[in-house]
Fold this protein.
Amino acid sequence: MNTWRNASLAVTAAALLTLTTACGQEQGTASPNGQAVGNAAPAQQPAGSGYGSSGGGYGSGADVAAPKAAGQLAVQDSKKLGKVLTDSEGFTLYRFDKDTAKPPKSNCDGDCATAWPVVPAGDVTAAAGTDASLLGEVVRTDGSKQLTVDGWPMYRYAKDTAPGQTGGQGVGGTWFASAPDGKKAAANADDPAAVGEGAEPADAAGLSVRKDPELGDIVVDKRGMTVYRFTKDSAWPMKTACTGECIKKWPVVAPVSKNSVEGVTKKGFVTFDRPDGIKQQTIDCWPIYTFAGDEKPGDVNGQGVGGTWFAVSPDSKLVKTAK
């Protein structure tokens, strides 16, 4: 009898340990009312700034010290993005929403320029069939000259390690592959009504990191909208206190593939099957939301609302910096 009782206790303890590990510990892949999303690859943390990481491709130290000329530009046809501008080796060129085109100005320096190597002006030829008059240059803060297309400064992405890759598309809701005319690349670019500066990128990172001037590094969704946590929720057991009218004001973040995550922890990265039947993404087993009062990327109007809603750091912690 004692043998049976001891075996039963051991099984119960093992099951509890498995669930505890799954929700809130490093190797969690499932949770009560939850399921794993994507693979279990470790998160790649940005290099200091939240813009992306260096290393590989154009992001090596040597490339930063001596930027590689673009040479003969070319146009690549992408199923997702339409016509994309590339350098002579087929690497995608990008533009940054925080830059300006009129007048041309780059706002990517320091760690940002390590993750997003600038494309130098000079030794560049317009792609066949494109308007060469759109090519220009801007003088950066360090005195170097950067290639512009219709006024927009051009960059490469450190994590693009092979021609044709577009890994920088949609990062932080501010980085986009460039079309040949300097606009954001879009598969439906021939339809003016469907393309705009605020259009959602076709393959944006599901979750990424944005550096807010007041809050620091915070998590954003694929549209660049701020992600929040609710202090009345719980991670273990996983529960939500935001239902009914609440989720109209605080829409849930839909499930996200781990493969589309940039710089955000993947610990406890599971889908929460809410009691209302809605599936919601979690970080470290905490349900995450956006705020209906945020009208555009960069807004943090939900920060501190009611003393219970806060932006989320890349390691899933609450960001309680006062607004």
Remarks:
- The radius of gyration is 22 Å.
- The first helix runs from residue 2 to 22.
- The helical segments are 2-22, 61-65, 111-115, 246-249.
- Residues 7-21, 24-65, 188-203 have pLDDT under 50 and may be disordered.
